[in-house]
Amino acid sequence: MTVKDRVALVTGASSGLGTDFARMLAGEGATVILAARRVEVLAALKAEIEAAGRKAQTVALDVSSEASIAAAFAELDQRGIALDIVVNNAGISGAAPAITLSAQDWDSVVNTNLRGVFLVAQAAAQRMRDTKRGGSIVNVASILGHRVAGNVAAYAASKAGVVHLTEALALEWARYGIRVNSLCPGYIETEINRNFFATEQGQALIKRIPQRRLGAPSDLDGALLLLASDAGRYMTGSSVVVDGGHL
Ligand code: NDP
């Protein structure tokens, strides 16, 4: 399960799961490229990782903007960085009843969670193909990519799209030595849902999780490491669910 001396891009590294994934991969010996919009938060994480004797770099990235993705990859090219691993983790929630969900809110969720995942994966895969190094792309979807809940129509549709997109990319890119898998977390406590789980409805939901607790970001580390490393070398197009048991 080693990622030692691999180079791993983590999108959405400024918070929650992305920060945990970046710390974990750096701790396992990878050089991590921390990407998000809040570059000042990334700079602090880079300093923390380097203080622990590990390697990190930062790059500004807005996955909802084609221009920002092109600029970020051009910047990495200029620095001579060849990616081995991409953790396509950046995402937003946008909970709202479907009956009044605005087109603007729909676009915002789908552009970040689905279009952004595709464009980042494509930019990385073009380089992995050209250098003939291959690589591993892990798209962070959600259990809501496999089943639905109330008030998350756009989010659930975007994550189901990520699961299916992952299978399509895996099929096309196996010939380049690129593996593409999706990681589907259940309910993991981060900024994206902290307010919801403080409510009565949120507490009731926790009681329905078979393991009777929210996940911690580190509960996903083993699955991510499996998909990112050579231990998962015969896995592509898979969707790995880590959710404390089905609700
Ligand atoms: P957080 O809200 O804590 O973090 C989201 C991250 O995504 C931030 O680093 C944010 O950085 C980044 N981000 C948001 N929009 C953009 C954008 N347009 N461009 C670049 N980066 C962006 O959420 P989580 O850590 O919980 O979520 C991470 C992923 O895990 C998401 O895809 C989420 O859907 C998925 N997930 C989470 C679950 C959970 O229970 N927490 C369950 C299932 C899936 P910045 O604002 O600096 O750009």
Automatic annotation (TrEMBL):
Gene Ontology MF annotations: oxidoreductase activity, acting on the CH-OH group of donors, NAD or NADP as acceptor
Domain Ketoreductase: 6-191
InterPro entries on file: KR_dom (IPR057326), NAD(P)-bd_dom_sf (IPR036291), Sc_DH/Rdtase_CS (IPR020904), SDR_fam (IPR002347)
Record's catalysed reaction(s): 2,5-dichlorocyclohexa-2,5-dien-1,4-diol + NAD(+) = 2,5-dichlorohydroquinone + NADH + H(+)
Sequence intervals crossing the membrane: none
GO terms for biological process, alphabetical: fatty acid elongation
SMART domains: PKS_KR (SM00822)
NCBIfam families according to UniProt: PRK07231.1 (NF005559)
Family to which this protein belongs: Belongs to the short-chain dehydrogenases/reductases (SDR) family.
UniProt-recorded name of the protein: 2-deoxy-D-gluconate 3-dehydrogenase
